[in-house]
Specification:
The complex is a heterodimer of chains A (314) and B (290). Chain A has 314 residues and is mainly alpha-helical. Chain A has a single domain, classed as Ferritin. In chain A, strands 1-2 form a two-stranded antiparallel sheet. Chain B has 290 residues and is an all-alpha fold. Chain B has a single domain, classed as Ferritin, core subunit, four-helix bundle (Ferritin). In chain B, helix 1 packs antiparallel against helix 2, helix 5 packs across helix 8 and helix 5 packs across helix 10. Chain B starts with 14 loop residues before the first helix and ends in a 16-residue tail after the last helix. The chains are: A mainly alpha (314), B mainly alpha (290). At the A-B interface, helix 2, helix 3, helix 4, helix 7 and helix 8 of A face helix 2, helix 3, helix 7, helix 8 and helix 13 of B. Chain B: This is Phenylacetate-CoA oxygenase subunit PaaC.
């Protein structure tokens, strides 16, 4: 299929592995889905220590299930990315381990306290939900299909995050203050989640022309702010002064973007942000520590089937 | 063993009966809670995404079982903070097998530990099917169904890892290290109370006979996988020489614990303490209504 035909036909779930897609499309889709899959894994990696810190047994159960879901999403998304024929799952996992794989800005920041968990599980997951909901009608069918399950489960995660936030904001004064401090720390990062305005985004044009991306960064951020500013205020959080956000009469917002630290954002985008390297490197170390198991499993597969298919041991 | 007389509900037990029921429940609940706490360390660190997902499943099952058993302790007026968050670390009754940390990348430890634990869990929960305490017996079926899957999972990993020499050596190392601790799963808390648990028919097998049944299962399995079990090298009569096994200094059951436990306890109660909490949020239906 030539690129012009792709652009003409680029409707929801229009293309699948049965179609002969041009390389440009397959590369763009791979980049997008791989980023998404990596983010699921690194988000889970960031949240995992807080399974231990959950302050009730049932919350611990819910937290473990959430982290498990994120891993499951990663698994699903790597499969959707693999179906484009550009990279294998192993190649993508290797890239993630060796620091080449890109992922969401918020998951680069270290997380230290329980009160930070709803900043991810409510706000970041809520922001992700916005984007993911639109991707149910992306043009690459396996990606849209994965989004069905992902969005369904993310709905629970946001509720989980909202419940943790609610608990904190109806708790002691100390809890409320700790939550507000965490919110102030995370808020600018959450605004940056949607990336720079469309005119600065390099990949936007093509991805939307071929139906991979359904809404622009600006539209998504506006929709997020419309929903989440009132929610944050409902729970008693005070929206930080930076960045300045003004609401227009038509319900849209003006965000003073130049007040945000875009140097840091682009440093993160290149996996060069110093505090975030700890996440990447420690995950790499953890993966290398169990490389012997994967080798052993490959030997097992060899003995069984004589082939060279990669391990999928459960 | 003759069927013991059925015991009444929690409010109508005598003090002696209640003490026995509580002790049995602490054994069960603390084991499940603490081993699950350790299992979650493998989440997002297991060898593959697939093994990651199953380790998470198993941790959640065990946590779910802990929840069922702690809930029966709540029948006696305790609340979750009394049972977990504000309890003295030195009061816990779990076997020390559950509290040991995992070395980085030591998947063999996870496989061996979960194998030894799940086989023991199966034996002891089977012995609760005919418990004279109906509140307990009623919850056994759900636990057993999940343990069947855990055992299959652990066995299949054990077999696969033992196929090549390098990984079998790691498994052997884990067996040597963990077997003494696994034996504490069958150690008594207080001899007198344990005897009462048996007399009252709260379980239908005593600790020694369960330990024999467990060893008769795990020793031949380990050996057939090419592993070596030091003290079990005598002939087929496994029940003769099991007495020779040395227990570690800390069994957990008698409230003696390794230093690792106190660190772990500090870690998992950290947020609860930092937030200054006095209660634990329930977010699920009561197990009786599920």
């Amino acid at each position: 299929m030539d690129l012009e035909t792709v652009k003409e036909r680029a409707g929801p779930r229009e293309f699948s592995p049965k179609d002969d897609m041009p390389e440009e499309y397959r590369k763009a889709a791979t980049r997008m889905i791989q980023f998404h899959a990596n983010s699921e894994i690194m988000g889970a990696y960031l949240e995992r220590p807080f399974i231990r810190q959950a302050p009730s047994l049932e919350r611990k159960l819910a937290f473990s299930a959430k982290v498990q879901d994120e891993l499951g999403h990663g698994q699903l998304l790597y499969r959707a990315a693999e179906s484009l024929g550009i990279k294998t799952r192993q190649e993508m996992l290797d890239e993630l381990a060796n620091g080449q794989g890109k992922f969401l800005n918020c998951f680069h920041y270290p997380m230290e306290s329980w009160v930070e968990t709803p900043m991810i599980a409510f706000f970041v997951d809520g922001a992700a939900m916005r984007r993911q909901a639109t991707l149910k009608s992306t043009s690459w069918e396996p990606y849209a299909h994965a989004m069905d399950k992902v969005c369904f489960e993310e709905g629970f995660h946001v509720k989980h995050g909202e419940a943790v936030l609610h608990e904190l904001m109806t708790g002691s004064k100390k809890e409320q203050e700790m939550a507000q401090a965490a919110f102030e720390k995370w808020w600018p990062r959450i605004i940056q989640f949607f990336g720079p305005t469309d005119k600065q985004s390099t990949h936007h044009g093509f991805a939307s022309e071929v139906g991979l991306k359904k809404m622009s960064n600006d539209e998504l951020r506006r929709a997020f702010l419309n929903t989440y500013i009132p929610k944050a205020e409902k729970y008693g959080l005070v929206i930080p002064d930076t960045p300045t956000i003004e609401k227009n009469d038509d319900g849209t917002y003006n965000v003073a973007e130049d007040e945000l630290d875009w140097d840091e954002f682009f440093q993160i985008a290149k996996n060069e942000y110093e505090p975030g390297l700890g996440q990447i490197d420690s995950r790499k170390k953890a993966q290398e520590a169990v490389a012997w198991v994967r080798e052993s499993m490959d030997n097992h597969e060899q003995r069984l089937y004589g082939g060279t298919s990669p391990q999928a041991a459960d | 063993m003759a069927a013991a007389q059925q015991l009444p509900g929690p409010q109508d037990l005598t003090d002696e009966q209640r003490e026995a029921v509580e002790m049995l429940l602490y054994r069960l609940a603390d084991d499940e809670f603490v081993i699950a706490e350790r299992y979650t360390e493998w989440q997002v660190r297991a060898p593959t995404i697939e093994s990651d997902l199953s380790v998470a499943n198993i941790a959640q099952d065990e946590l779910g079982h802990a929840r069922l058993w702690y809930d029966l302790l709540e029948d006696f007026g305790y609340e979750e903070p009394d049972l977990i968050w504000e309890r003295e670390a030195g009061d816990w009754r779990h076997s020390t097998l559950c509290e040991l940390p995992f070395g980085e990348g030591d998947w063999a430890d996870f496989v061996v530990r979960s194998y030894l634990y799940d086989e023991a869990e199966f034996v002891r929960v089977k012995a609760l099917e005919g418990s004279s305490y109906p509140r307990l017996a009623d919850r056994v079926e759900k636990v057993l169904a999940e343990e069947r899957y855990h055992r299959e999972h652990a066995r299949s990993w054990l077999e696969r890892l033992c196929e090549d020499d390098d990984s079998r050596a790691r498994v052997q190392d884990a067996v040597d290290r963990l077997l003494p601790y696994a034996l504490t799963l069958f150690s008594p808390t207080d001899e007198e109370i344990e005897a009462r648990i048996d007399e009252l028919g709260l379980r239908t097998e005593n600790l020694l006979s369960m330990r024999e049944a467990w060893l008769d299962e795990v020793v031949p399995t380990l050996e057939s996988a090419g592993l070596h079990v030091e003290e079990a090298e005598l002939p087929e009569q496994y029940d003769v020489h099991h007495v020779d096994f040395d227990l570690p200094d800390e069994t957990g059951r008698d409230q003696s614990h390794t230093d690792y436990w106190f660190d772990l306890f500090d870690e998992f109660t950290k947020s609860y303490r930092e937030l200054g909490r006095h209660s634990a949020m329930k977010i699920m239906k009561d197990p009786d209504d599920e």
